[in-house]
Amino acid sequence: MQLIAKDTDKNVAHMLDGFAYPAILVSAEYEILATNELYATTFGEIPRDRGSRCYEVSHGYRVPCDQAGESCPLAACKSSGVKERVMHIHTTSRGKEYVDVEMLPINGEDGALQYFVEILKPVNIASAEFSTENMVGRSPAFNKLVEMINLVASRDTSVLLLGESGTGKELAAKAIHDASPRRSRPLVTVECAGLTDTLFESELFGHVKGAFTGAVTNKPGLLENAEGGTLFLDEIGDVPLGMQVKLLRLIETGSYRAVGSTQLKRAHFRLICATHKNLMEQVAQGSFREDLYYRINAFPIVLPPLRERSEDVGIIAKSILGKLSPDEKYRLTDSGIKMLSACHFAGNVRELRNVLERATIFANSNIIDLKVLERCLLDTAPRNKIAESVVWQDLKTQEARYLNDLLSHCQGNKAQAAKIAGISLRSFYRKLDLVRGD
Ligand SMILES: Nc1ncnc2c1ncn2[C@@H]1O[C@H](COP(=O)(O)OP(=O)(O)OP(=O)(O)O)[C@@H](O)[C@H]1O
């Protein structure tokens, strides 16, 4: 234990060493009074130049978190009188990091709230800085997602990941598995889209020799590969009805039979499902079983579309570039980030990734700027709407955008686009050549 404020009650401060995580003792006035050894080894010594209040040390703020637009566990704890928990991004010696913060109230002899113990558990499932390994983001919507994943990861509860295509459902499934006690066992993904009843059944359950034409040997199913680990059923909304009942039985009883076999096998796995579809609507239409819906939906997590967390675009884009070309060290300019942040991205992070991959091809150097990006967006992202207020652009760029939007409106029909633009088809082609050829 290390005393920060010398007049602190040492007996209370020594209590910090009993925690298995980094912990600090805080006064009701936000002053850090003492830290435990784990705090110093995990986050470093309290930097004296930042002040000694928790919001100064952990965030570099001049005011408590709730006055800086964030949730403040200490203020919440003061008003509730019980333990509070939030997901915060803290500034540490390594940069910005996700931290699971628990605040415990400690009453004095008179029964009044006197101290607070803040327990800080580092969260490794996501990064608030550049990372080529983890999911990245720092928006409030992403923070909420990290909080949900962190809460459920250590349990065996079935998780249903909901969100548009390309929002990161598969990455979230991996994050849950990696943070779960099953992390040393396999994570097995089953792409449910496009599988027929029979194919699905033999893929998942396996088959025995002679079960059907072509079954020349016994083949174990994916369930066997997932033993003790996590089974991730991607696009669960596409599982054929006939197979849904077998899936339900598997989840309810934990047992199954390989195709063509009478032997009952037991499976031990944690289930994560994902879909971009509205399963409730499918239930109403009769294409998804209601009983299965409730079985898989024990803990739903919604992945927000990228357009609702535009603050994340810059950090995600930099991380994707780092993944795409680890050796090249591409630099995305600030105006480039501003432009991408204003895009609609109907295909979410996957579409952003495609735009950046094209950018690495078009770029003549390692700088990815507005000019390069305009070209990428022009060529194949017609649904992207670049906000008017982004930056003043030259006429050629403006014209490119106009032609792009017009073509998108006309679904690629150049004759119709030329008619609306009030120019001949030949002139339209000429303009397209001009804006596309750099
Ligand atoms: N927060 C994030 N940080 C970094 N990369 C991300 C993030 N979210 C998604 N990605 C990347 O975006 C791409 C799409 O993600 P993913 O495949 O997980 O989406 P999905 O929701 O499962 O898509 P679909 O519904 O089409 O299967 C992947 O390359 C993934 O690595």
From TrEMBL:
<dbReference type="InterPro" id="IPR009057">
    <property type="entry name" value="Homeodomain-like_sf"/>
</dbReference>
<dbReference type="InterPro" id="IPR025943">
    <property type="entry name" value="Sigma_54_int_dom_ATP-bd_2"/>
</dbReference>
<dbReference type="Pfam" id="PF00158">
    <property type="entry name" value="Sigma54_activat"/>
</dbReference>
<keyword id="KW-0804">Transcription</keyword>
<keyword id="KW-0067">ATP-binding</keyword>
<dbReference type="InterPro" id="IPR003593">
    <property type="entry name" value="AAA+_ATPase"/>
</dbReference>
<keyword id="KW-0547">Nucleotide-binding</keyword>
<keyword id="KW-0805">Transcription regulation</keyword>
<feature type="domain" description="Sigma-54 factor interaction">
    <location>
        <begin position="135"/>
        <end position="361"/>
    </location>
</feature>
<dbReference type="InterPro" id="IPR027417">
    <property type="entry name" value="P-loop_NTPase"/>
</dbReference>
<protein>
    <submittedName>
        <fullName>Sigma-54-dependent Fis family transcriptional regulator</fullName>
    </submittedName>
</protein>
<dbReference type="InterPro" id="IPR002197">
    <property type="entry name" value="HTH_Fis"/>
</dbReference>
<dbReference type="InterPro" id="IPR058031">
    <property type="entry name" value="AAA_lid_NorR"/>
</dbReference>
<dbReference type="InterPro" id="IPR002078">
    <property type="entry name" value="Sigma_54_int"/>
</dbReference>
<dbReference type="Pfam" id="PF25601">
    <property type="entry name" value="AAA_lid_14"/>
</dbReference>
<dbReference type="Pfam" id="PF02954">
    <property type="entry name" value="HTH_8"/>
</dbReference>
